[in-house]
Amino acid sequence: MAKPITDKAEVSIDFPDKFYMGSFSRESRFGVTADAGGVHLWLERTGENRRKVSFHVHYHLLTGILEAMADAIRSGEPIDDTFRNDLAVAAGRLGTAFAEQPPTNRT
After folding, report:
1. Which of 6, 24, 63, 75 could cross-link 28 (Cys pair, CB 3.0–4.6 Å)?
2. Mind listing the pLDDT tens digit for each residue in 75-107?
3. Three-state SS letters, 1-65
4. Contacts of 30 (CB under 8 A, 6+ apart)
5. Phi, psi (degrees; rounded to nearest 5) at 37
6. How far apart are CA 5 and CA 28, in angstroms?
7. Is the pTM of this model over 0.85?
8. Distance CA 78, CA 90 (A)
C-alpha cells in the first residue's frame, strides 16, 4: 500500500560511466512489502518528472543495516527530539510485529 512521503529521500547510483540521482519529497509516495526472503521498498515520484526506485533487501543484510544504524545513532550527533521519538516508536512497532508473528519451522 502506497503512503505519502512526509519528509524527503535522496537516491544516487554511481556506475563507472554513469551517475543517477533523484529526490523524493512531499509529492512522492513509498511502499514496503515483506516476503519470506526480505523486504521490498520502493519510492515513486509521479507527474512530469516521474521516477521510481525500488530494491529488495534480504533479512541478513537488513539485520546488519539496523545494527549499523544503531551504532551510527549511538556515536553520532544528537538527534532532534521529534525525530528521535518518532524513530523510537517505529522501532517499537517493528519489535511488536516480530513478537506477534508465529514462529516457522524453517532451518
Report:
1. 24
2. 999 999 989 999 999 999 999 998 998 888 765
3. CCEECCCCEEEEEECCCCEEEEEECCCEEEEEEECCCEEEEEEEECCCCCEEEEEEEEHHHHHHH
4. 2, 3, 5, 9, 24, 41, 42, 43, 44
5. -100, -25
6. 6
7. no
8. 18
